[in-house]
TrEMBL record:
Signal sequence, renumbered to the chain: none
Protein name (database record): Sister chromatid cohesion protein
Residue spans of biased composition, Basic and acidic residues class: 85-108
Organism for this UniProt entry: Stephanodiscus triporus
Domain of life: Eukaryota
Residue ranges, compositional bias (Basic residues): 1826-1837
Segments crossing the lipid bilayer: none
A single cellular component GO annotation: nucleus
Keywords: Cell cycle, Metal-binding, Nucleus, Repeat, Zinc, Zinc-finger
């Protein structure tokens, strides 16, 4: 359409009254006739013309009788309800979002440049106002004059009937000269004079109406205005004296006093009593028996209707205050109208109304405070001067003690609250006019502070719905108006900003804290980092709430913005110079946004920094009023709100405040990390700061992740022409399809959108419409043409250039909000956005590489040019308006590019640095904070720096830090299972962590990983290590039970994880049952069993043994023997039942795997390991439920052929299958037995015995023997014959070659001999000879070799007796391997016939194999044999075999059978072995590591079976803790010590000294000597835990794992026992030189024991001081006697001998040491000093290592209680290890080494002097400080506090 030339439009001046509406309607109709689009413009004009919507309800209510007001608002109500975005604030639902502003718009008065008609209209309006005001003043003055005349005529008295009386009555009713209707008329004139310029052309050629406003009161005469303000002030002054709530309380109190008096039996007061409702009624009378005429009380305010009259005074005062503020805020007003008294009166009325009326009415607290006053009145009235309680009647006592009914009082006061709450709307108007007044007038500081404090006090209102259902909405109206007022004061008066900010913090402590009242400020949730989707209708999301104090803080910051300067490069240079100066003057890190005032944000920065500093300082305080405990939750809630509104473009200051908080919190945390011990930050503040810092960082991480995953992609296209669409598609952002609904087509890209999503209806379809993406593309293209520095094309546009265009869209959106609102704060929001944009441009100019292609100076000028708000006819071009959905996307994109988001690497770096800090608490807190970040964006865990720090935390010294690191990785692994490999190895290492909680956490992680991903690649090693932990006897019961529960869930639950749907699934394998079918239908349960079977096979394949798996399966099926005390017995029973039910499915799955394996294997050597694992797992189930393997024996028997194409693993294969056959044989039926033995099974077993090594031979013989022993086997069965024939052949071979043995025999002969011995021993062990029973008296010489092999048979033990004699011959051979095999074979005879052990003992066999002369391999084999004998005997008894054997014997009496389940052979082996206990103890000192390990294992079995004395054994077990070169032996001995410690807690403490000595002698004997021949003895161990090297003693594990560490008495007994080694031997005067290495060994242990409380090292220091004080001083005196007092004065400082030693010129002759006697004596004294020196060095070491003060050492007594703050001590890792090694004083020929002796003398004297000086210094200081210590008193050994008293 062709554009029309704009014509001059007439201006219409609008004045109050009915004429206003007519003129506006005429202008509207005239404009509408010219353009069809004009009604909208006129509607906007109507909005601007409307008075404040606050006043609509209240003015209509309070002045309902005033006709002019009703006529004025009636025509305006309709347009307001349709067009205004602001609802009436008196409604129950009030929109408190930043877009809520009222339509009244403040504008500067414009000079009348309109044609004369408009000027005449304006003048006419001014004349009309003057006439109306003059008439009102004259009427008031006339009434006042009439009242004076009437008073004079009546002699000073007034009558209600005359005019003067009515005037005085009206004055008392309204509180001033004006009537309520007159005040209402004056209020109508407070509306500014509005000029409508009709016919201004817009960009589209349309016509709009431009509205301008001028003050109505500025046209009045000064004298008239002064008179008017004085009259109005009288109303305000009268209203100041009104306190409706307090006066209503007095009415209630009088009524309650009367009722109480009547109840107490006294006389009722004759004065009439009224209720609050009567008091508030307009026309009320007294009622009741004591009624009296009005005025009889003498107090008009307490008469019926008195409350109504007081309310009218208050209402008129409020109306007058609003008029006064409107007059004083009018531009161009005569200054005589702005008087200080008037201003003060208005401010005080605002204060009184808020504090005395609105606060108690809204919060329903007006009744509080009545109780104490009423109690006082009751006491005064009832006692009447009598103090005795007896003077009161029982009813009076109850009245005195029971408080008045609060509910009744509160209910009565509702009659007052209701009219008070009706003033909320008019009071909001008053606050608005006060805000307007502040903009144009200067106020006194005192009044400013009063007004700001009053406005702040409104924030503490806790709205109560009891008074009124919409109390919360009314409260919000008051609070929002008050917040706008505070923000106006804050922006108008910079000098008061710091004071107002300080006032915020005491206010925070009074804010409501309930969940209902905490967040009441309504905002619109347009987008969030947690959700990338928006509302389908494009409305921007749901409403949400934040704290009013948070909204106020942001408004205050935004109100300080000023216009940026128009400087160019010089501004940037100025910024650089200022920042450099700031860096030089302040070493504290500051936010990157701290620039100069060229951006206009310096005032905002100052307020932001002050607020941040103050709130964090208050969070840091402790022990003060309003301290940290109150402010820390406030800080947390504040940050939550700031993060919530960060995506709301209406709160741009939230970004600045968050940036300031993040930098300050980061600085505080970094300073705390480097603070000294004297400047340590409180732990609670660190936790608060870290939590807040983590919240901010995680929110930023979420922002970046959302922008990364859902970026705002705009396809750049320089062409502005319409693109040719390939096809018309639905591209609506809601994601819905082409529904049967109204849709709109984009005129450029021809994409379709739902009309409901883009806000277009069928009735309002525009002629041309473009989608958001096309608008963005077009805008970017237009901006690129204008702002691009070079003509490189559109492709050169960068992300930063695009962000400038996006900011322009956001600015248009904010401007539209500010344009529709009259609030200064909305305009400040727009200006703050512009200033932030300018600041970012300046920062980009400092980094040319990141500035983009736009000319930043040109962009800057363009941005600053938009500072002034656009007028109504200067609206933004429609192309800069997009849907709410696009605005949300734009806001999210800009937030992701903000300074806070750009600082994310620094924020993350702070957390990573703190994770490596020395403070344990900081490391733990930083890990938890980083966990928040990782939960938001798990991709961060892939960064090398993050993985490095987290991996380091896995080796942290603190268990809590390691647990936090494990938990972090656990969550990360579950979120990203495909990345679990990165932390797989560190997690495996933590399975062996010393922290129980860490191990539990790792187990849970692997459980969850395996449940979510059963085919996890690292499952085998993880399961293997977990099984290993569960099998460790040292493991904690909780960890062990968790492992058991984990494997029960994974393997025996059946519902642990779903491998597909619950319906039938198709497996990938081809089953042998149906080869033609490409897949087999398998249920979920079958697939589950198959997966479990694979896991079991993988575990066994990795570990190479099924030992751990066997232990687990047996435990799950039959219990782990945890004992009845365990609380999880029922849970374990349930697990056992589930495991039994699952076993059959697992066996079937294993067999299926075996068959599948055979079908797919390539018969390679490597396949053997898989086959062994499969068979081993089957063997495990054969041990628990052998009957399950019976149906599958035919599948397994072929493997006994020994031709399985796995030569390397054939032995393991046949051993596993033989074991399965052996265990399952007892469940064979007679038919099955006959079928198997009639086939090739016996032959295969015999062949194994001939072909395979001894391990396989034993399994095969056992299987064949069990087949022969089967109950259904007939005599002379095939298997028995094969077994006997095999025995005869091997026996014959051994008999034949018994004389041909020697060292030089051939290898083949040696192998055959070993095979024969192994087979014969196994036959003797496993074949049960039912008719063979040894007598009680066996002749040891009655065993002989049978040379005629035909006489060999099983019956009568003939074969085993002959074998025993034959084995003796081979045992005596020189070949060690043959001796071991003979001993092992003989062990088989001992197991089957225990009484032969007695014969072996008598023959000296046992003594010889355990003797020192026996080779180590023989000793090891003998110990292993004894272990096997004990285990077999134990198994025989527990299985009931011994009982069956005893019952089968005929010569056993009935009493023997009843007395027990054991036979006479059960204790023979243990008794014989106990006889050799001393020799067994000696073997613990063997130099062979394997011998030591084997003997410890045997001692463990002896202790468990009670066959050896624990008191005698424990020292040797402690001694083995010194076996530092054999960790396995130490671990085994430790397990035994822990078990014994649990049974006998005191025994370890009692035997520790003996164990220490034994450990010293152990190392001295076992380990090699150094080059000088001195044994290498050490009590310390070092181990690496990541980057840390930890020093510990050989007894650390014993103390930590046992109960010693947890009980103070045990710890002190242990320490006293070790220190007793240093005490002087009472039987000898001198110390033996051989004792010194032991003392040095003991001192190293005392230095590095794992102390948990400071009392432990203090106890050592105490006893050390006692010993050195007595014995040390005695040795010094002996030196003095030997050397002479001149050379060695015990009381002097450094002597001549010490000086000579230091200089290296010591000569004994110079000191009289010439004779041998003196020389020997000097040497012996040096030896005696060496007994004291370790204690002196130990004392200094402990004092430094544990930072013990001298005063603390002196005040300590052993009987004192442990102090709570001294618990949990630990030695620093940086402390060097303690060493106390002395050079030898005498050489090998017992000659003294003077050099070493003099050094010892020097060290001894020096340490003794230091010790004495410390004691003297401490005693002197303590005598001054503490009166309890006597001056000069030095504690001696054995002193205590009781002695001093």
């Amino acid at each position: 359409m062709a554009s029309k030339k704009p014509q001059a439009s007439p201006q219409v001046a609008i004045s109050p009254g009915d004429q206003v509406i007519d003129q506006v309607a005429h202008a509207s109709s005239h404009t509408a006739s010219r353009d069809g689009n004009c009604p909208a413009a006129i509607q906007t004009t109507s909005m601007a013309l409307a008075p404040s919507s606050y006043a609509l309800d209240d003015l209509a209510t309070t002045s309902s009788s005033d006709g002019p007001m009703t006529r004025l608002f009636a025509p305006l109500a309709a347009p307001l309800s349709k067009s205004s975005p602001k609802k009436d604030k008196s409604l129950s639902h009030v929109d408190r979002s930043p877009t809520r502003r009222r339509p009244i718009e403040k504008a500067d008065p414009s000079t009348a440049t309109s044609p004369s008609p408009s000027a005449a209209a304006a003048a006419a309006a001014a004349d009309a106002i003057a006439v109306a005001v003059d008439g009102i003043i004259c009427a008031a003055e006339s009434r006042e004059a009439s009242a004076r005349e009437s008073s004079l005529a009546n002699g000073g008295a007034t009558s209600p009937d005359d005019g003067g009386g009515r005037a005085f009555e009206a004055a008392s009713l309204h509180g001033g000269p004006f009537a309520a209707s007159e005040l209402g008329r004056l209020s109508l004139h407070c509306t500014p004079v509005v000029t409508v310029d009709v016919g201004v052309g817009n960009d589209n050629g349309g016509v709009v109406a431009e509205v301008s406003k001028t003050g109505a009161w500025s046209s009045l005469d000064g004298d008239m205005l002064s008179t008017l303000t004085q009259m109005l002030r009288s109303h305000v002054t009268s209203a100041l004296g009104v306190d409706l709530v307090a006066e209503a309380r007095d009415v209630v109190a009088r009524s309650m006093e009367a009722d109480a008096a009547a109840e107490n039996g006294g006389k009722r007061d004759k004065r009439p009593v009224i209720t609050v409702h009567q008091w508030m009624m307009q026309a009320a009378k007294y009622s009741g028996p004591d009624s009296a005429p009005l005025g009889s009380l003498g107090e008009a305010n307490l008469e019926p209707g008195g409350g109504h009259r007081r309310l009218q005074v208050l209402l008129c005062g409020l109306e007058a205050a609003g008029v006064l503020l409107a007059i004083m805020a009018c531009p161009g007003i005569d200054r005589r109208a702005v008087e200080d008294d008037t201003i003060e009166a208005c401010v005080n009325l605002i204060k009184n109304h808020i504090q005395k009326h609105l606060v108690p009415a809204l919060s329903n607290t007006g009744h509080l405070g009545m109780i104490s006053s009423l109690d006082a009145r009751f006491n005064d009235d009832s006692n009447n001067g009598v103090d005795e309680e007896d003077s009161l009647s029982p009813k009076a006592k109850r009245a005195k003690t029971v408080a008045p009914n609060r509910g009744a009082v509160a209910k009565s006061l509702k009659a007052v609250y209701t009219p008070i709450l009706a003033t909320v709307g008019s009071f909001g108007t008053i606050l608005e006019r006060a805000e307007e007044f502040i903009k144009v007038n200067e106020m006194d500081d005192r009044l400013l502070f009063t007004l700001s404090a009053t406005a702040l006090s409104s924030l503490i209102i806790d709205a109560s719905p009891i008074v009124r259902a919409d109390a919360a909405s009314l409260t919000s109206i008051v609070q929002e108006s008050a917040m706008d007022l505070i923000a106006s004061i804050f922006g108008r008066y910079p000098r008061h900003r710091s004071i107002i900010v300080e006032d915020l913090f005491p206010l925070m402590l009074k804010l409501p804290t309930s969940k209902r009242s905490l967040r009441t400020y309504l905002v619109k949730k347009r987008t969030s980092a947690a959700s990338s989707s928006t509302a389908a209708n494009g409305s921007g999301g749901d409403n949400d709430y934040i704290q009013p104090i948070c909204a106020l803080t942001l408004l205050l910051i935004q109100s300080c913005v000023v216009m940026p300067s128009q400087s160019d490069e010089s501004a940037v240079q100025e910024v650089d110079t200022k920042e450099r100066e700031d860096e030089e003057n302040d070493d504290e890190e500051k936010p990157a946004s701290n620039t100069s005032d060229t951006s206009g944000l310096d005032g905002c920065d100052a307020v932001c920094n002050q607020f941040t500093s103050q709130i964090l300082q208050r969070c840091y305080r402790k022990g003060e009023e309003g301290g940290a405990s109150e402010f820390r939750p406030i800080l947390s809630n504040l940050i939550d709100d700031l993060l919530h509104v960060r995506y709301m473009i209406e709160f741009p200051a939230a970004e600045m405040l968050l940036l300031s908080l993040s930098h300050r919190l980061g600085n505080d945390l970094m300073r705390a990390s480097s603070a000294s011990k004297s400047q340590l930050v409180e732990a609670t503040y660190l936790a608060t700061a870290m939590d807040a810092f983590g919240k901010i960082t995680s929110h930023v991480a979420g922002t970046l992740r959302q922008n990364r995953e859902n970026p705002l992609n705009i396809q750049y296209n320089m062409s502005t022409s319409e693109p040719e669409p390939e096809e018309e598609v639905n591209r609506c952002f809601c994601g819905r399809g082409n529904l049967d609904t109204f849709m709109v087509d984009c005129d450029r890209c021809h994409s379709w959108y739902h009309g409901s999503c883009i806000g277009i209806t069928k009735d309002a379809v525009p002629d041309q419409w473009f989608c958001d993406e096309c608008k963005l593309q077009t805008a970017i293209s237009d901006h690129a043409k204008v702002f691009t520095r070079s003509k490189e094309g559109f492709e050169a546009i960068t992300t930063r250039d695009r962000n400038h265009v996006l900011r322009q869209f956001s600015l248009g959106y904010i401007s539209s909000i500010a344009q529709s609102s009259s609030s200064l704060q909305d305009e400040k929001t727009r200006q703050f956005f512009i200033a932030s944009w300018v600041r970012d441009i300046m920062l980009q100019k400092k980094n040319p590489d990141e500035s983009g292609t736009f000319d930043l100076e040109l962009v800057r000028s363009h941005v600053i040019a938009q500072w002034s708000p656009p007028s109504h006819h200067q609206k933004y071009h429609p192309k800069f308006y997009v849907t709410d959905h696009a605005n949300s996307r734009i806001t999210t994109t800009l937030v992701a590019c903000s300074q806070l988001s750009a600082s994310f690497p620094q924020l993350l770096g702070v957390l990573l640095r703190l994770m490596g800090n020395d403070m344990t608490s900081l490391r733990k807190l930083s890990l938890k904070a980083f966990l928040q970040v990782a939960n938001v964006d798990s991709a961060l865990m892939t960064q090398p720096s993050v993985r490095k720090e987290v991996s380091r935390c896995f080796h942290d010294a603190a268990i809590s830090v390691r647990e936090a690191a494990v938990g972090l990785v656990g969550d990360y692994v579950l979120q990203s299972p495909h990345l679990a490999v990165a932390f797989h190895t560190p997690l495996l290492e933590r399975l062996a962590d010393v922290g129980i909680s860490v191990r539990k956490r790792v187990v849970k992680i692997f459980r969850d990983v395996l449940l979510s991903n059963p085919s996890y690649g690292g499952r085998a090693i993880a399961m293997h290590l977990m099984l290993k932990r569960a099998d460790d006897r040292k493991e904690d019961d909780g960890v062990r039970d968790l492992v058991h529960e984990t494997f029960h869930t994974l393997w025996f639950n059946g519902k642990a994880f779903e491998m597909g749907n619950s319906t039938l699934l198709v497996a990938k394998d081809v089953t042998p049952d149906d080869p033609g079918n490409p897949g087999k239908i398998m249920t979920t349960a079958q697939l589950y069993s198959r997966e479990v079977a694979k896991q079991m096979v993988d575990v066994v394949k990795l570990s190479g043994s099924s030992e751990f798996l066997t232990s687990l399966v047996n435990g799950l099926l039959f219990g782990f023997n945890e004992g009845d005390k365990d609380k999880k017995t029922a849970e374990r029973k349930r697990r056992q039942e589930d495991s039994r039910n699952q076993c059959n499915s697992l066996v079937l799955a294993l067999v299926e795997l075996l068959l599948s394996f055979e079908e797919t294997r390539a018969h390679k050597e490597e396949d053997g390991k898989e086959l062994v694992a499969l068979l081993s797992v089957l063997s495990v189930f054969s041990q628990t439920y052998p009957e399950l393997l019976v149906p599958h024996i035919d599948t397994l028997v072929p493997y006994l052929k020994g031709d399985n194409a796995a030569k390397k693993f054939e032995t393991d294969i046949v051993s596993a299958v033989s074991s399965i056959v052996s265990l399952s044989s007892s469940h064979f039926s007679s038919v099955e037995l006959a079928r198997l033995t009639g086939g090739g099974l016996p032959t295969d077993l015999v062949n194994i015995a001939y072909k395979f090594p001894p391990a396989a031979v034993s399994s095969a013989v056992e299987a064949l023997a069990n087949l022969a022993n089967h109950p259904d086997a007939i005599a002379g069965s095939t298997q028995e014959k094969r077994l006997l024939n095999m025995a005869v052949q091997f026996y014959t071979y051994l008999l034949k070659n018994k004389d041909n043995l020697g060292i030089n025999m051939k290898k083949s002969m040696r192998d055959n001999v070993r095979r024969a011995l192994s087979a014969l021993g196994s036959i003797c062990r496993f074949y049960v000879c039912h008719d063979g029973c040894d007598s009680h008296t066996l002749d040891p010489n009655g065993f002989s070799i049978i040379t005629d092999v035909k006489l060999l048979r099983f019956s009568g033990n003939v074969l085993s007796s002959a074998c025993f004699a034959l084995f003796r011959i081979y045992l005596e051979q020189e070949d060690e391997s043959t001796k071991c095999l003979a001993l092992r074979a003989m062990n088989g005879v001992f197991i089957s016939r225990p009484r032969l052990v007695l014969a072996a003992e008598q023959l000296g066999i046992i003594t010889s194999v355990l003797s020192e002369a026996a080779p180590p391999c023989v000793q090891i084999e003998s110990l292993r044999c004894w272990r096997d004998i004990l285990l077999a005997e134990e198994k025989r008894i527990e299985s009931g075999a011994a009982k069956e054997k005893m019952q089968a014997q005929k010569n056993v009496s009935l009493s023997k059978r009843i007395s027990g389940d054991q036979d006479g052979d059960s204790c023979i082996s243990g008794s014989v072995l106990t006889k050799h206990a001393d020799r067994l103890y000696e073997l613990t000192l063997s130099k062979n590591e394997n011998v030591r390990h084997m003997i410890i294992d045997l001692l463990g079995h002896l202790l468990r079976q009670g066959l050896i004395n624990p008191m005698a054994t424990v020292p040797y077990l402690l001694a083995v803790q010194g076996d530092v070169e054999s960790p396995a032996t130490r671990s085994l001995a430790l397990t035994l010590l822990i078990n014994e410690g649990e049974k006998r807690p005191d025994m370890l403490r009692q035997r520790i000294c003996a164990g220490l000595k034994q450990a010293f002698y152990f190392q001295k004997k076992v380990y090699h000597h150094d080059a000088s021949g001195v044994p290498r003895v050490t009590a310390l161990l070092t181990r690496s835990d990541g980057p840390r090297v930890i020093t510990e003693t050989i007894f650390d594990a014993v103390i930590k794992e046992s109960a010693i560490q947890n009980k103070r008495a045990h710890r002190e007994g242990l320490l006293r026992g070790i220190i007793s080694l240093f005490e002087k031997d009472p039987d000898s005067e001198n110390t033996s030189i051989d004792q010194l290495p032991l003392l040095a060994f003991a001192s190293e242990i005392l230095a590095h024991l794992p102390y948990t409380a400071l009392n432990d090292p203090l106890l050592i220091i105490y006893h050390s001081s006692c010993i050195t004080a007595l014995d040390g001083q005695s040795i010094i005196n002996q030196f003095a006697e030997l050397l002479g007092g001149d050379l060695c004065d015990p009381n002097s400082g450094e002597d001549d001998l010490e000086r000579a030693t230091k200089k290296g010129i010591f000569d004994p002759k110079d000191f009289g040491l010439k004779s041998k006697k003196s020389t020997d004596l000097f040497g012996q004294l040096c030896v005696n000093a060496c007994r004291i020196l370790p204690l002196l060095q130990l004392k200094n070491f402990l004092r430094k290592a544990y930072n013990i003060s001298e005063a603390r050492m002196t005040e300590y007594v052993p009987s004192e209680k442990e102090r709570s703050h001294e618990k949990g001590v630990s030695i620093s890792d940086s402390t060097p290890a303690f060493s106390c090694n002395f050079d030898p004083i005498f050489d090998m020929e017992q000659r003294i080494n003077w050099h070493n002796a003099s050094k010892i003398y020097l060290s001894f004297r020096l340490l003794m002097r230091d010790c004495d000086a410390e004691d003297l210094h401490v005693d002197t200081e303590e005598s001054k400080k503490s009166p309890k210590r006597r001056s000069g008193h030095k504690r001696k050994r054995g002193d205590s506090d009781d002695d001093e008293q």
